[in-house]
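dumping this here before i forget
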Amino acid sequence: MSAARSRSKSQAKPKAKSTRRKKRPWWKPKGSARTQRWAFAVVLLSLGGAAWAAHGAYERLLDYPSKALEGDTTPIELEVPRGASFPQVLELLVEHGVLASGDASAFKVYVLHKGAARKTTAGPHVFRGDMTPEEILQELQRKQKVAEVRVTVPEGKNLLDVAQILADSGLATPEEFEAAMRDRALLDSLDIKGETAEGYLFPDTYKFAAKATPADVVTKMVKRHQQVFAGLARTHRDSIASLEKSLGWGPEQVVTLASIVEKETGAKHERPLIAGVFLNRMKFSSFKPKLLQTDPTIIYGCTVPAEKSAACQKFEGRIRRIHLDDKDNLYSTYANEGLPPGPISNPGKAALEAVLAPKKSRFLYFVARNDGTHEFSKSVAEHEKWVDLYQRKGQVGKPKKKKKP
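structure:
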């Protein structure tokens, strides 16, 4: 290598050092190394303490449900009201000494953690002060045995009869039931247009809660009627339309006639025929005046309505001439044409169906045979013959046909 080339290499200028400062790592704060180590130690201790505290809290949370509270073994009875919210239940537990006020928050967290805030059951519960939170929650969720009252309401009873039957079961007094059956606000809520629930207290066997109110009972009976009637209306849709077209009737008039049919006969096979007789009287143009002339309507008007006519105020259980002529008794079908202003009893399914599926005939009259059945006639003359035989001469049952010689 030449000397000149060697000198040129040795005389070359060194590279300039970079003036940019390296970025400090996040774990190396400003200050001396000792300060940095102390700060790092404090951070580690803080994190460790927090972790230890969290671990302790977690352990306590795991132990909480099975740890007995500090009360005594005395039974504590309380009743959770129907519809009570969990905060209200919690307040009851503290108020009755099941939980100490200082334990209420922890119990609330536990119940919310279990997702059980809405699973408490209404009714009576029994606790002790030394129960575990888990046991308290189990008792709050215990299914209640609902005390029930079984009541059978027969067909054809009016509202006063039904009120007495219900009262005999111990649910409430007759007066309380009658008041519910006449309660305008309750009737409106049940879509009943009449002045009472008459006709809509469906005869059936019911199971009512022992603590059911008269309004609860009336509501259940009316809804049962509505359920049955809706089914019949679907089955007899054409008949419903025919009655509306020919007579202008709606469901209220169907129920009213069914209530009369129910009172007129206890023989099931006669109901469609008797319904047909009344419908013939309403539809046949030759039948005038349009008087149904049925005794149960007079009796009803003289016994059940809150306001009664002067003649009805003298009613003693037997129909007299003043009652037959009494136009002020709006329920009288002897003095007033057409249907009465509302039902006179509570009809069952068979009577309702009899109106919707009547037996066709030309009969316009019937009279009792004194054995629970009736004799039917097409003319006044024929009817009078049977009235003489059964009502005046006391014949019982259908006359036997004379044997031909």
